[in-house]
Specification:
Length: 304
């Protein structure tokens, strides 16, 4: 059956209650589930899905989906919880609720209650601010295994930004109450929380400096390098359209398009529909004024 939003769940989620067949998740359906057949059955990620209302085309329909059972720990790779003892990890997993969002759905909005920590297990999420005039500034793109929403979780204030799925996503939601209980019983987790907040502050400080010291093409190059992450591949495909890239670099879409065209002419990247394929990551790093990876790693090793 479909239940009301559980306490601490991100806005827009619906929890399904049927423990007989393992983990379940809610998949929001803004605009209705047009893909369901007459019997209300469809398949998502190889899993049978039961559509509410037999596939009726209704606004806000939620569907119940069975998530595949994972053999690995659901918190594997999540740095914030890496130092926990096995028993504490089991408590976190038991308290967290799994959910799924489709591409384009909003996980939570700016000024929503900050009542849950989100662990991203699959997909990608754009975190952004919206101005009173409706303009968007893309702050970061979160990829697994990472967490977000921790700022509001700690101070109990409203969300400082919005989060939107830019790919189909699977997440775990840990309520603020459950998280604070975890902190009280495992004070060591505060070290990981402080590292997470420290990384957030460093990133925001660097972004502010970039708007002062870098021109727009430099900021576009740096955004592409960040989106490429730690990839060692000769070509990196970035699933971000140019409007989203403009929001991230802090420029107009037209100006960002011109920078992309310039990089393409130099052989640093190419565009394929709504994708950007980076073919020369070192060149983009140089354009952004960033150190080469090997030089940076040596500097970090030599630092006292």
């Amino acid at each position: 059956m479909i239940a009301d939003d559980p306490p601490g769940a991100p806005s827009g989620y619906r929890e399904t209650a049927d423990p007989a067949a393992g983990p379940v998740a809610a998949i929001g359906q803004p605009g209705g589930d047009r893909a369901c057949g007459p019997a209300g059955i469809r398949v998502i990620d190889g899993q049978s899905v039961v559509c509410s209302g037999g596939g009726a085309d209704r606004e806000g329909v939620a569907v119940e989906a069975r998530l595949p059972l994972e053999n690995t720990d659901a918190l594997t790779g999540v740095e914030m919880f890496s130092g926990l003892e096995p028993e504490a990890r089991r408590r976190v997993i038991a308290a967290a609720v799994p959910y799924t969002y489709r591409k384009g759905q909003v996980l939570f909005s700016q000024d929503d209650p900050g009542d849950s920590l989100i662990v991203l297990k699959r997909g990608a999420v754009a975190v952004y601010r919206t101005s009173p005039a409706g303009e968007r500034a893309l702050l970061t793109v979160v990829r697994p295994p990472d967490v977000f929403g921790e700022v509001s979780l700690l101070d109990g204030s409203a969300r400082s930004a919005s989060a939107e799925a830019i790919e189909d996503c699977s997440v775990l939601a840990l309520s603020r109450v459950a998280f604070l209980e975890l902190v009280h019983s495992n004070p060591a987790i505060l070290d990981a929380v402080m590292r997470s907040l420290g990384g957030l502050i460093r990133r925001l400080t660097e972004q502010n400096a970039d708007h002062v010291f870098l021109d727009l093409p430099g900021r576009v190059a740096k955004a592409l390098v960040r989106l490429a992450g730690d990839s060692q591949a000769s070509m990196v495909t970035i699933e971000l359209n140019q409007s989203q890239l403009a929001e991230m670099a802090g420029g107009s879409r037209q100006s960002v398009n011109q920078a992309i065209g310039s990089f393409s002419a130099r052989g640093w990247l190419r565009t394929e529909g709504r994708r950007i394929v980076v073919t020369d990551l070192p060149a983009l790093r140089r354009r952004a004024g960033m150190q080469e990876r090997g030089t940076r790693d040596r500097d970090q090793r030599d630092r006292p």
